[in-house]
Amino acid sequence: MPRGLKFSERVDQFGVALGLLIALALFLGGGGAGYGLQNLAVQLVAVALILIYWDRVVTFLGVTPRWVIALLAASLALPLLQLVPLPPAVWHNLPGRDMAVASRTLVGAADAWYPLTLAPHMTVTAALSLVGPLAVFVLFLGRTESSPRGGLYLLVIAGLLNFLFGGIQIVSESALGLYPMVDEGRLHGFFANHNTSGLFFVICSCAAIGLVAAREQPVWERTGLIVSALLFVLGVLLTNSRSSTVLLFLPLGLAAFVAWPRLKAVAFGQRFKRGGMFLGLATLIVAIVAVLLVSSTRVMTTVDRFDTLEDSRPAIWEDTLSAADRYWPVGSGIGTFDEVFQVDESLENLMSLKAGRAHNDYLESLLETGIFGPALAVAWLVLIARLWWRVRHTPDRFVAHAAVLALGGIFLQAILDYPLRNQSLLCIAALLLGALVACQRNQRDKIIV
Fold first, then answer.
1. pLDDT of amino acid 196
2. Quick one: CA dihedral 104, 109, 114, 120, positive or negative?
3. Do 448 and 242 meet the contact criterion of CB atoms below 8 Å apart?
4. Which three-class secondary structure state does DSSP give residue 182?
5. Is the pLDDT of residue 295 over 90?
């Protein structure tokens, strides 16, 4: 290690700061808004790391595409703007505020200034949740040399830890003190929601397969990545998550795309010795895992869940659209769904339990942010597609493929669930986006957009 470096610079050489933040977010941030103290711990560490590595913030601003920075700033600004106090003449006339005006009139507070959001404490919580992913993004891209592959290796390690922890939970039939075990027998790992845990395994399997194709590795390393990917597939099935099981088409499709040229080469006798050994080993591993899957009653439970597709989500979506129409086009405020949904919940759709969430992040965003949240989501999709298009033929293309498919998994599961409503997945999404930006940055010393 070169002498004369600051302590922070020495630590940063090995990416310890980023690894620490990801590990902490994974261990403490998988419970959502209901676990404020755990999320606060992650956020405080994120702020501390940003202050320690402030020079990385400067580097980040200098080398990151301007469009990325603009979208990042807009995403951070949205909840903050919803917290700005507005004069009575303004907030009285915002859509859907009739009940708020009436209740505040009763207590003589109708002439006070209030923000756009109807639940400021929840919007503050939502704003603070962005601190962690912001720190991940800055720490990853603010280094002089940011390896896209490094981000994927970090995900593989995190996925193995989640699988190990989840396996211990299943064997011990205990949540081990993290979150209440709502669904016994399902692999939760570091997450309160089994769907989120399943999605995380899908993301990690994409990362492992992308690394297999990203460069030539020793046989032991490539075998380790393949075994990891298969463990992640098994992890998805053990979560009993139907949405995550369907999303396995993403890593399996990437695996087929990666394997096809190698299979052709083996078939036609090219590089037979090395390719044949590699193919034989991979086939043996797949066969062993297949036998284990067929004989596993826990895995068959996941398959059986597809026999019954009755779900309360469509009823929740219908009422969410009605609520969104009430607050259109400015929304009720980020994080306010549980506060305002009951007003528009119809009697025919009334359930014994509170909905809590819309179980569709796009509809929930429509309700909470009006036109602004969906517009930001579309802008991020366009950005991701643009970044991928620019690096699709570069040496880092398989890293980019893996990152885009993993991000695509998040976007797709958001149709049925709320994957980005917890600190862990927000940080993972920031890491994936950082890897994609780093793929493009590797082509030039400085990106100009």
1. 92
2. negative
3. no
4. coil
5. no
pLDDT mean across residues, the chain: 82
What gap in Å lies between CA 143 and CA 20, rounded to an integer? 16
Task: Say if residue 219's pLDDT is above 80.
Answer: no
SS3 38: helix
Preceding amide of 329 cis, omega within 30 = yes
Question: Cα dihedral angle (179, 184, 185, 186), rounded to 10 degrees?
Answer: -50
User: CA-to-CA distance for 314 and 79, rounded, in angstroms?
Assistant: 28
pLDDT in tens, 351-406: 656 667 888 999 999 999 999 999 999 999 999 999 999 988 888 899 999 999 99
Each domain of the chain, given as residue ranges in start order, spans 15-82+118-142+317-449, 87-116, 147-311
- Kindly report the CA angle at 323 between 317 and 326, in degrees rounded to 5? 150
Burial class (CB in 10 A: 0-12, 13-18, 19+), 398: buried
Quick: pLDDT tens for 180-199: 766 667 888 899 888 999 99
Q: Distance between CA 437 and CA 442 in Å, rounded?
A: 9
- Alpha carbon distance 262, 117 (integer Å): 55
Residue type, 132: G
Q: How many CA atoms lie within 13 A of 284 on its CB side?
A: 7
Residue matched to tokens 């390896």: 147
Give φ, ψ of 189 to 5 degrees: 65, -130
